[in-house]
Amino acid sequence: MIDRKRRFLIKVDKDKIFGTDKGYIKHSDIIGLPYGSYTYTSQGVKVYLLKPLHHDYLYGYRRITQVIYPKDSGYMIYLSGIGPGSRVVEAGIGTGYLTTYLAHIIGGQGKVYGYEIREDYIKIAKENLRLSGLLERVIIRHADIRKGILETNVDAIFLDLPDPWNVIEHAYKALKPSHPIIVYVPTINQVEKTVLALREHGGYIDIKAQEIILRNYIIEENASRPEPFMIGHTGYIVYARKVLKH
Q1: Domain 1-51 class, CATH top level
Q2: What span, in angstroms and rounded, lies between the C-alpha atoms of 1 and 28?
Q3: How many CB atoms lie within 10 A of CB 18?
Q4: In the chain, pLDDT over 70 holds for what percent of residues?
Q5: Strands, E assignment, 21-102
Q6: Domain ranges of the chain
Q7: Between the chain's N and C termini, which has fewer beta carbons within 10 Å?
Q8: Cα–Cα distance between 89 and 80 in angstroms, integer?
Q9: Is residue 239 classed exposed, middle or buried when 0-12, 13-18 and 19+ CB atoms within 10 A define those classes?
């Protein structure tokens, strides 16, 4: 890492050189250095050597689809209540951004079942999951979730689809009682249709729609202030919990 805008995820090979706009680094010069230490590029710019955290892997991911931003995916996972050993269904996995977060959270004993209709997306999602070492925790189905969910008794369902209201009954059959369905959509019209469909179904309670706004701050003595640009609207989150019908 050079600065906030220059973060690089690399696999070290003693015979390679990594180039940046601030100079190059020989891999052989950093092999054996401890995490948290630093070195310099050929232009004398300091570079910190950090062990990748989960979110760092995202910088190395291929992406050809719109992704769910961390400010949203983190809150969605918080709402879901999932943890080590959980079984989770995700539909509309795209290139696997949310999928990797889910796979990280559920641990080696859990499983993520991903549904995606685009083969090209599936190929990239698998590459990204392999990069972060999480592919074995995920089963990706080349299937349309609108036609049904194969899994039952799952702990949570995440939907990133243009028409999630068409999956509500399938989700109800697949979920454990009291467990949540969590939907991500970009427009308020989709929110309305989803919430109305959940209400009309009769098998969901605690229905709510939310939006997450994130603002970074510039911290300087006696001059701290919000950054002029903030991450505003990216999408809406709809949440509901399954209850038994009598």
Answers
A1: alpha beta
A2: 17
A3: 16
A4: 95
A5: 23-26, 38-40, 46-48, 87-91
A6: 1-51, 57-242
A7: C
A8: 11
A9: buried
SS3 65: coil
Q: How far apart are the first and last CA of the chain?
A: 57
Neighbours of 122 (CB within 10 A): 20
- DSSP string of 163-210, one letter each residue: -GGGGHHHHHHHBPTT-EEEEEESSHHHHHHHHHHHHHHSSEEEEEEE
Beta-sheet pairing, 138-142 with 17-20: unpaired
Which helix (H) or strand (E) segment holds residue 125: the answer is helix 119-131
Note the helical H segments in 16-109. 27-30, 70-80, 97-106
Q: What is the distance between the alpha carbons of residues 154 and 80, in angstroms, rounded to a whole number? A: 11
pTM: 0.84
Mean pLDDT of 125-150: 94
Say which DSSP state 22 is in.
Answer: T
Residue 51 is given by DSSP the state: P
Q: Which of 89, 93, 158, 96 is nearest to 130 (CA)?
A: 96
Mean pLDDT of the chain: 90
Identify which of 123, 80, 122, 120 has the alpha carbon closest to the alpha carbon of residue 101: 80
**What mean pLDDT is predicted for residues 115-131?**
93
Q: Which residue has the tokens 């009598």?
A: 246
Is the torsion defined by CA of 197, 198, 202, 206 positive or negative? negative
The distance of Cα 220 from the centroid of its chain, to the nearest Å, equals 32
pLDDT of residue 9: 75
Q: Which residues, 6 or more positions from 17, have their beta carbon under 8 angstroms from its beta carbon?
A: 24, 25, 26, 27
Helix (H) or strand (E) segment spanning residue 147: none
Task: Please name the residue that has the structure tokens 């948290």.
Answer: 36
